[in-house]
């Protein structure tokens, strides 16, 4: 794995959540995720399958957390391991105060597409 690949990937992955244009965001999701991708969100106890379900969930999060509340998401730690990448993220209020943290463990196929993400919220 190229040393720059995780950083490039994390920026691209973050844009699936933060891109303001819904059509562009959906396009990024369809490029980045494998069609049969799976997003498991521990705190909600849900598993989303396929890019349509994943895109719908991300759209709700974007509207509820980013647009409505002005929260800013960023990655502050990444650890690559073969086909997996751990991304620790922080969620900051408009004041700059961190109001939440979590970890995404991202698995990718040989083509670099996301196959599975395990999302854990409430991580310090």
UniProtKB/TrEMBL annotation:
InterPro entries: NTF2-like_dom_sf. This is Uncharacterized protein. It comes from Kytococcus aerolatus.
């Amino acid at each position: 794995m190229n040393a720059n690949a995780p950083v490039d990937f994390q920026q691209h992955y973050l844009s699936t959540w933060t891109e303001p244009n819904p059509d562009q965001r959906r396009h990024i999701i369809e490029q980045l995720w494998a069609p049969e991708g799976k997003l498991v969100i521990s705190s909600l106890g849900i598993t989303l399958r396929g890019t349509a379900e994943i895109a719908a969930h991300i759209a709700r999060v974007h509207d509820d957390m980013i647009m409505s509340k002005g929260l800013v998401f960023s990655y502050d730690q990444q650890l690559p391991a073969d086909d997996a990448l751990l991304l620790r993220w922080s969620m900051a209020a408009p004041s700059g105060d961190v109001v939440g943290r979590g970890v995404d463990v991202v698995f990718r196929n040989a083509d670099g597409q996301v196959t599975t993400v395990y999302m854990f919220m409430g991580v310090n």
